[in-house]
Amino acid sequence: MDMHRLYVYSGTGNTLHGAERIAEALGGGTELINMAGCLGKATVGEGETVGIAYPVHAFGAPLVVHRFLETFSASRESWVYLFLTSGGMPLRAAVQGVRLLAKRGVRVRGAFHQRMPGNYPPVSNPPSGAKLEKIVAEAEQGLAAICDAVRSRRETPPSGGLFAWLSTFANSHATAKVGPKDRRYRATDACTSCGVCATVCPVGDIALDERGRPRWLGACTGCMACFHWCPAKAIEYSATSASKNRYHHPAISRERYLAWSAAHRSA
Are strands 186-187 and 235-236 parallel, antiparallel or unpaired? Predict the structure, then answer.
């Protein structure tokens, strides 16, 4: 088992960038796998290292990650780790992830978190300019330390579990209400019918109607990829979203993310 596998869920490229940095550190033979393409399939993580990378949603795992873990298992010989990103306070999201995997009989050897630019429009406005550059630069330093820990297989348990119940409570409440979020989306007259929104949606929740406008099908999992990646900034999510910046990690281009999103559909 001389290969490395890293299962990744990413809406704006923050987690994808971090995963790519880890893959570079581990060297050739590292396979990045789009988690969305594994949904509904039995997945066995095998390799010297097996990583599960995702952003923190509502202080815990996104709904896509919950669904992925329902059929996930890992080889006992593999060094399994978590890599989480968030734009703010993650509470004990890593503890929740460790516990979710324990239910699947998977032991987590390392749990890592890296702060990235926040991008959930109802509660934050993605930074730009010097502020964005500062956060990204600090994140790169943190990623370097995480890469070193994964490369050296450094046992790193999640920090504390005192408020793990709060992460679990808030996360369970949020993921139970994900579907109705569809009603918050709308496409403005700026829409060009390019179809980017449908391509980037990890769960196939967007279809184009007879006018070429997006319509949401009731299965939104809250990644906000359609909002952030629309080239025309034609998708709105809430009453205040029009005033919010659109965001993607500076190192992940739209072309890179589109290729990443499209790949899982042919998996």
Answer: antiparallel
| CA dist., res. 85 & res. 139, Å (int) | 10
Q: Which two tokens stand for residue 249?
A: 């990690």
Amino acid residing at 211: R
**Averaged over 251-256, what is the pLDDT?**
96
3-state SS, residue 111? strand
Type of residue numbered 178? V
Distance between CA atoms of 147 and 141, rounded to whole angstroms?
10
First to last CA, the chain: 22
Q: Whole-prediction pTM value?
A: 0.93
Q: Which of 122-126, 137-141, 148-152, 210-214 has the lowest mean pLDDT?
A: 122-126
Q: Round to whole Å and give the CA distance between 74 and 64.
A: 18
From 229, 236, 234, select the one nearest 211 (Cα to Cα).
Answer: 234
Q: Using an 8 Å Cβ cutoff, are 124 and 86 in contact? A: no
Exposed, middle or buried, 41 (CB in 10 Å: 0-12/13-18/19+)?
exposed
